[in-house]
Amino acid sequence: MSHAIESADHHHGPDKGFLRWVYTTNHKDIGTMYLLLALGSLLIGGTMAFVIRAELFQPGLQLVDPNFFNQMTTMHGLIMVFGAIMPAFVGLANWLVPMMIGAPDMALPRINNWSFWLLPFAFGMLLCTLFMDGGAPNFGWTFYAPLSTSYAPPSVTFFIFSVHIMGISSIMGAVNVIVTIFNMRAPGMTFMKMPLFVWTWLITAFLLIAVMPVLAGVVTMMLMDIHFGTSFFDAAGGGDPVLFQHVFWFFGHPEVYIMILPAFGIVSHIISTFSRKPLFGYTSMVWATASIAVLSFIVWAHHMFTVGLPLVGELFFMYSTMLIAVPTGVKVFNWVTTMFRGSMTFETPMLFAIAFVVLFTIGGLSGLMLAIAPADFQYHDTYFVVAHFHYVLVPGALFSILAGVYYWLPKWCGRMYSETLGKWHFWLSFIGVNITFFPMHFVGLAGMPRRIPDYALQFADFNAIVSVGAFIFGLSQLIFVYNLWRTTIGGKGEQATDKVWDEPDGLEWDIPSPAPYHSFQEPPQVK
Amino acid sequence: MNTPKYYVPARSHWPIFGAVAVFLTLFSMASIIHESSQGSVGTGSVVLAVISGFLMLYMLFGWFGEVVNEGLRGLNSDQLKRSFRFSMGWFIFSEVMFFAAFFGALFYARMFAVPWLGGEGAKGEANMLWEGFTAHWPLLTTPDMNTYPGAMGVIDAWKLPFINTVLLIISSVTLTFAHHSLRAQNKAATLKWIALTLALGVAFMCVQIYEYGHAMNDLNLTLNSGIYGSTFFMLTGFHGAHVTLGAIMIFVMYWRVKNDHFTPDDHFGFEAAAWYWHFVDVVWLLLFTFVYVF
User: Fold this and answer.
1) Distances from the Cα of A430 to the Cα of A181, A398, A437, B263, angstroms
2) Among A174, A276, A509, B218, fewest CB within 10 Å belongs to which?
3) Strand partners for A449
4) Which residues contact B60 (CB under 8 A, 6 or more apart)?
5) What residues of B are in contact with residue A5 (Cβ under 8 Å)?
6) Which domains occur in chain A, in start order?
7) Which of A214, A240, A226, A42 is nearest to A123 (CA)?
8) Is A495 helix (H, G, I), strand (E, B) or coil?
9) b/e string for B139-169 if b means 16 or more Cβ within 10 A?
10) In terms of CA atoms, which chain A residue is nearest residue B24?
11) How many other CB atoms sit within 10 Å of the CB of residue A332?
């Protein structure tokens, strides 16, 4: 590595061949690898969703046996959360944070590469469990004890260690992002001048460092209970299975915001650009993001209203959860007000961003319904919950990632994607996502339980509709994959200008398209 | 390297090496645990574990060695040095949160789970599961004594644990003396104080191991004793692992001081090890208070 730093004085481009990707310390290469890993996970997790929806197309058991169905719901959740959404945001952070703050690279480039390369191994190990005796984890992505301890398949040990590897990767990645933002800003880039994507990622990274170790702690307790005789989650020894849920959701609720805060940042940029107005209420956006992060630590037990909490607990977590609607409302208000009387155009990123605002708000409102403890007694563990969190994660987090990729892709590769294909992708996704998840509200309110391969006959019509919507949504992602391939490897599409869009705001638009391998050799001045 | 130009690193083979080493280590550990629960441990897993252990060591020596060499050659800019400081701080914060999970489990068991099982408090109806069970802490008699045989007693806080508390507090003080000597460029005194710190750390670990033996052999207090044994051994065990890691760091610092790696105003490696040692010390004070005394 010593030769490495000496070469800092002269420009050097990427290495040739496969080893470029293995040995790289470049934030753009690493960002690309994260995004490709996320895309791969999205397709694998999506295939599992196809299995789920194919089985649920009709009542009765047709295609898979119930145990395999449970493995599919579990792996679909784990892969989408840890393999698709989180790495995609880390990939975007890698690409964008250094460019946005005028830095040469991430603060710790070698650690950055390590964080990435741990992930393929972690997911390889997780996917291997599908082929082990007793099958893959089948206890749901929330892996509640005792399903994940006393009654778990033997492969649970490998699941635990794969979570540990993901945790190491996430913590190191988050430390890197925080240190980059604190220490690598160009002169003049004060905190309150930072782009919102940088702000939201700063707060996300803080959440990651705070809660990923708690996840490591809870899977360690599981490991000890399964193999070493402890009784953390066993009442026979004075423990409590509910303890698992407390520790898990202390991680899990901030985790939910880890998957949505960067989305808020992306959408803020896009709405501002395509409304041709500065973002309305920048300061309030920053404070709202910080408030959401703080609140995320005191709302976890709203996932557990039916488990038998004391009344005081139910009340506390009900009211604290409702408080989150306030900063979230501020954000939605700001986005709408940014668009108000703006000179708007509707390119693909903007379409996804507007769909984000509308559909994420639907997910937020169903979340508010679920926050009401007595009402939650009815909704708990039904498809209403499935509808709720898919609305915030699919047209929420995933749409924002798609919007961000369309928005910044011309900057990354120097060519415009096909707007026609982008619009097709958007409309089919938009229609597909709503056909998939909106009817789930109705079957959920009518009492259809989640994570069950069979259902009562009265839910048959809606489930058939949902499955059709899921296939439309899933297959329409292939348009996206083709559009990506066509623009990057295929070399089609017109040359992008440096600004790409109509006067977008931010340092990343001041450098050429495609962005040079090292964006800034010298610190840019920020006015 | 005092140019206004940015530090731009080049490629490195350590990250992929590290990823493979971490994966193989954890995979072989998982295999061994998995196979032992299924009956017998295969030779392959053990061999893999040994190999991956060596790979980890090679990676740690190689990677840290490279970073140390870069520092010695004066290649690190002030900005990079600040990045190292921030990173260590946030890493320690992540460790704090790891311990927080286990302290949370301890508090939950004491404040809620055990009293409820004993029929007290808002969810006292849980007592219907184990009628006749009465809540007490430390929990020596578990609800199901066949599965979790409880313990005959607990460690007396004011004997060995108190000695250990004194040892660790003194070691934090001696480490600070070492730091002062380092800044005063008194190499002999620095080495002496570091050695004393290390000796105190090793003494702590010896006492801890002796105490574990006493707990397991005389008191029948094990991981299998119920929630008291679970939280006791997990908290003190992870703390002991961190003391060991901290002692290794301090040992490395002894070697680095001996080889004149540090200057009075540039010795971040030492400071990082010291921060870590103080962190481990603070965790012990919480442990002593909440696990042993109360």
Assistant:
1) 34, 12, 11, 61
2) B218
3) A382
4) none
5) 1, 7, 9-10, 70, 75
6) 17-509 (1.20.210.10)
7) A42
8) strand
9) bbebbbeeebbbbeebbeeeebbeebbebbe
10) A121
11) 17
Interface pTM (ipTM) of the complex? Answer: 0.95
Q: What is the mean pLDDT of chain A?
A: 95
Q: Which CATH superfamily is domain B80-293 in?
A: Cytochrome c oxidase, subunit III, four-helix bundle (1.20.120.80)
Decide if B13 and A110 are in contact by the 8 Å CB cutoff: no
User: What pTM value is reported for the model?
Assistant: 0.95
Going by pLDDT thresholds of 50, 70 and 90, the confidence category of residue B3 is: very low
User: How far is A254 from A272, CA to CA, in rounded Å?
Assistant: 27
Question: Looking at the complex, does the CB of residue A25 fall below 8 Å from at least one CB of chain B?
Answer: yes
Residue A15 corresponds to which amino acid? D
Do residues B13 and A23 make contact, with C-beta atoms less than 8 angstroms apart?
Answer: yes
- B113: nearest CB among A157, A214, A238: A238
Q: Which two tokens stand for residue B2?
A: 């005092």
The dihedral region occupied by A188, where left means phi > 0, alpha psi between -120 and 50, and beta the remainder, is: left
d(CA B259, CA B267): 13
pLDDT tens digit sequence for B208-220: 999 999 999 999 9
Listed by start position, the domains of chain B span 9-75, 80-293
Mind listing the pLDDT tens digit for each residue in A88-146? 999 999 999 999 999 989 999 999 999 999 999 999 999 999 999 999 999 999 999 99
A8 and B8 within 8 Å at the Cβ level: the answer is: yes
Structure tokens at B168: 């660790």
The encoded tokens of residue B252 equal 């490395």
What CA–CA distance (Å, rounded) separates A153 from A48?
19
pLDDT band at residue B1 under the 50/70/90 scheme: very low
